[in-house]
Amino acid sequence: MGGLETERVVVGWAARDPSGILSPYTYTLRNTGPEDVLLKVLSCGICHTDIHQVKNELGMSRYPMVPGHEVVGEVVEVGSEVTNFRVGDVVGVGVIVGCCRNCNPCKSDVEQYCNKKIWSYNDVYTDGKTTQGGFAQSMIVDQKFVVKIPDGMSAEQAAPLLCAGLTVYSPLSHFGLNKSGLRGGILGLGGVGHMGVKIAKAMGHHVTVISSSDKKRAEAMEHLGADEYLVSSDATRMQEFADTLDYIIDTVPAVHALEPYLSLLKLDGRLILMGVINAPLQFLTPLVMLGAIKNIGVKPIFLVFFFFFVGRKSITGSFIGSMKETEEMLEFCKEKGITSMIEVVKMDYVNKALERLEKNDVRYRFVVDVAGSKLEP
Ligand code: NAP
């Protein structure tokens, strides 16, 4: 594979400032090593995290930034020590492309929690070069962070599994929630949420979607297979569902009250936070100790007059998943016939797609057909 002298010039679409508007950008890929895989990008999903990043909502963005971390590509070249992949393989790359390999998380195969992990874009690689993501012609990635896409899965269908699918699969698996018969809630029916419904259903769960509006009811029930649909502002229905759920996967990417959702959980239920929110969330502590509050007409300050349901609830969080879980999740999706529900667009539509995603106007993931797009200016 290419040595130090090789300089690969590629075109990607980059944001230049917090306006988050992407436009063609020419740059060189990092030098390659014996464990690296060079891939030609075929498809790349658009995650809400891409909006947080290109708009510098987390205050850690560096520009120019080529986003995209749900990447499916075709292997074009492999380094001399690459054992897992061959030229022509269709492979995936997700949110991280490096880790220290020595810390406890790395040694325990949960390298996504390594403090020295390297993000697939908006980060600095070990050679000091900026990492750039999948809205580009090519990427060079260490084989440890590359997975094989199962045969028969199309590139555009597979792309959202690499972040959205994994983000749901990992906590369900880690917290022992991957057994049938559970009752789960999916809060926010977007890219991550729709994969949540599909994966939870395939695990044999009774799934309740909790949405901010009634607009997605028919799709949730008829196309995604949800069992129940709640509109979060419908206090009466929310009250009816108090104390019914074993877990809720909360994908809301904005500040929101946690109390209404904590109330829905059973004893020992878990609220699993996924949304990246750059402001503090608040909740009343009795809700995790004692349980749901049935309002009998007094103000929350007089909690003693409230009836309590069961409690001992947990609020937790989870970050994507490991490479091991990525492989497991892809196998699970293949075995269960799970794919994503997507809208495929060309790169010249990417800014409109980001705008629509921000306005909650996508069913349910945009995927850019990168190989079929003109990337050059
Ligand atoms: P998305 O496609 O925009 O979906 C988010 C959903 O939340 C929307 O479809 C909407 O569902 C609801 N929602 C949106 N804005 C809201 C608001 N202001 N108030 C209440 N509900 C709102 O986003 P996504 O790609 O699924 O990502 C969701 C969040 O998870 C983002 O913050 C993203 O950065 C984060 N994320 C985290 C991880 C991780 O590893 N933890 C991985 C991937 C993504 P309804 O219409 O049903 O209300």
Structure summarized in a few sentences:
By secondary structure, the protein is an alpha/beta fold. Helices cover 22% and strands 25% of the residues. It folds into two domains: 9-163 and 341-369, Quinone Oxidoreductase, Chain A, domain 1; 167-317, Rossmann fold.
Describe it.
With 377 residues, the chain is α/β, with parallel strands linked by helices. It folds into two domains: 9-163 and 341-369, Alpha-Beta Complex (Quinone Oxidoreductase, Chain A, domain 1), CATH 3.90.180; 167-317, NAD(P)-binding Rossmann-like Domain (Rossmann fold, 3-Layer(aba) Sandwich), CATH 3.40.50.720. It is built from eleven helices and 19 strands. The strands form five sheets. Strands 3, 4, 5, 8, 9, 18 and 19 form a seven-stranded mixed sheet that branches. Strands 12-11-10-13-14-17 form a six-stranded parallel sheet, with helices on one face. β13 (245-250), α8 and β14 (265-273) form a beta-alpha-beta unit. α4 (164-174) crosses α5. The site of NADP nicotinamide-adenine-dinucleotide phosphate (NAP) has 29 residues, from α1 and α5.
